[in-house]
Amino acid sequence: MRYLPLVWASLFHKKTRLILTLLSLIMAFMLFGLLQAVNVLFNSGADFVGANRLITQAKVSFTQPLPLSLLPRIESIPGVARVAYSQFFGGIYQDERNFFPQFAVDPDRLLDSYPEWKLPPDQREAFVRTKTGAIVGRKLAEKFGFKIGDKVPLKSFIFTTKDGSRAWEWDVVGIFDGQDDDWQGRSSLMYLNFGYFDENRQFGQGGAGVYIVRVADPNQSEAIAKAIDTQFENSPDETKTQTEKDWNLGFARQIGDIGLIVTAILGAVFFTILLVTGNTMSQAVRERIPEFAVLKTLGFSDGKVTALVLAEAPALCLLGGVIGMVLAMGAAKGLGAVLGGAPVAVQGKVWIEALVTMLLLAFAIGIFPALRARRLQIVDALAGR
Amino acid sequence: MTALVSIRGVSKRYTRGKQTVEVLQKLNLDIAQGDFLALMGPSGSGKTTLLNLIGGLDKPSDGEVMVDGKRIDTLSAGDLAKWRARHVGFVFQFYNLLPVLTAEANVELPLLLTNLSKAQRKKNVAAALAVVGLADRAGHKPNELSGGQAQRVAIARALVADPTLLVCDEPTGDLDRKTADEILNLLQTLNRDHGKTIVMVTHDAKAAEFASHQLHMDKGALVGEAP
Fold first, then answer.
1. Whether residue A79 is found in the same domain as residue A203
2. Which residues in chain A are contacts of B99 at CB distance < 8 A?
3. How far is B205 from chain A (nearest CA, A)?
């Protein structure tokens, strides 16, 4: 502890250089915190989704629809409690920047399969009754000011109406919300009445993107998933049934291997930081060789001088890293808000990874300058050799 | 008076590339306790090399260096560092203060190697700065001090751990005459009133006059008392 003021003061040897180095470290760790938070979101998004729901999609790809004729056959499988179906609509509201997900669903089946959503009975009734009916998540309604009775025009980038238009108009008949905080945070989507959608689309009638299968006993999920796929084996509509968690992960993987992308970006960032900060540290130590010679002259041992130099690197990395991570927490909150309340957060695990990275980085940039300071000969260093 | 420093048959050779240069040749010297010795001589005569050997910054190629009854030429690097911390105070021509530290923090550096408490270190630092007349400059950094003041801080740093020996390499080489005389007066006071043994290397004949006696070196050998 008695050497801490010396280490701290040495960091400020060149203030401008220190600030620039700190800024690069802050940016690197802010990126680290934010990307890891996104990574965790992608990988743990299904954590709060119970295994009491299965998703059945076409074996080839979830973009290939399955016929609605499979519905009674899936329902007949023992252990299946309720089956819903859903088709991604792909609508744009006014501007592409306003994109939010919409799904065409059978109202009763959807709401029976997702007890996590709450919708007043009269609004549920209206959703079932109104052919052009749509229900809107609370967060989405708050964002765009949607209220019951509004007409919401959506331009689908997938489906055209029978007259060839991409413009669809839906009547808001209900506002739904989550039963708990998690689901309330996810209420940034819209459900559309499947009947009207199916009757009026130009192609793909009688098909749905996925089936959502609610099972009576979560312990039987695996067996039921197998039974569903076996049912349609060697048929024109072979299926692939997974837990909702696995399906969500698979959906995210359509974008690419998020973990690999994040690792690659961070790898590039930290390699650059390693070079930049390492070079800065080396330069700082090179400039201070006479000072280290003075310390040795005063009786500081080789080991102490090595430790003093080595201590500067973690001080620098921890200072920049912690500031960066704190900023990442704020940025994650902001990103979550932009993504409609998605739970993007820098969790404890990410903090631990960041701290380990800070210490490894510190060791990597500090060890060679420290060894150089250790090896210096007092007489040569004082003579400027 | 007993000899505080005793040098016997000391030679020092440096190898630079393929060339070996003999800087000191079989040198013998005794420096008495409480002495203020000025080592004079032209550049390259070996006076700084001799000073480095006396201060334990370097080791001889041959011969023995005894300080206060201890052979220091056989100590390991670690033991030699400990010995320097306890027994020697250094004053350099260019002060060699750490620019990022205040005067007080610079003076405290040798005390960081002791077991003294923070409060005791602070007290000792204040006392050392008072001895050199800079108690009011404790919070200033080296770039806020004049050359003379910076050298006084360096002297305070050399004194603060109460060393046996003060080793000064051209302590006035970077100062004007008036300031140099002030510094030399201070060294004289430390020698006379505080009993510090001082070995000072200088080119300056006027500076050497402040010492109790002078030795002249040439081509790596002592050539007798300076006139």
1. yes
2. 13
3. 23
Share of chain A above pLDDT 90, in %: 58
Q: Which tokens is A302 given? A: 């080789």
Q: For residue A307, what pLDDT is reported?
A: 92
- Round to whole Å and give the CA distance between B188 and B227: 20
A224 and A266, same domain (yes or no): no
- ipTM for the predicted complex: 0.91
Spell out which residues of chain A touch residue B52, defining contact as CB-CB under 8 Å: 379
Report residues of chain A scoring pLDDT below 50. Answer: 45-50
Among residues A262, A243, A324, A316, which one has the least CA distance to residue A39? A262
* CB spacing of A13 vs B100 below 8 angstroms: yes
Claim to verify: residue A164 and residue A35 sit in the same structural domain: no
- Of B166, B169, B172, the C-alpha closest to B47 is B169
At residue A252, the pLDDT reads 60
Residues of B with CB under 8 A from a CB of A: 52, 55, 57-58, 77-78, 81-86, 90, 92, 96, 98-101, 105, 109-110, 112-113, 118, 157
Nearest to A113 by CA among A52, A178, A56, A177: A52
Check CB contact under 8 Å for B98 and A9: yes
Residue A54 in any domain: the answer is: no
- State the pLDDT at residue B223: 84
Domain count, chain A: 2
**How many Cβ pairs within 8 Å bridge chains A and B?**
64
Which tokens in the block code for residue B57?
């910054």
3-state secondary structure B92-156: CCCCCCCCCCCHHHHHHHHHHHCCCCHHHHHHHHHHHHHHCCCHHHCCCCHHHCCHHHHHHHHHH
Dmax over CA atoms of chain B, in Å, equals: 53
Residues A118 and A154 in one domain: yes
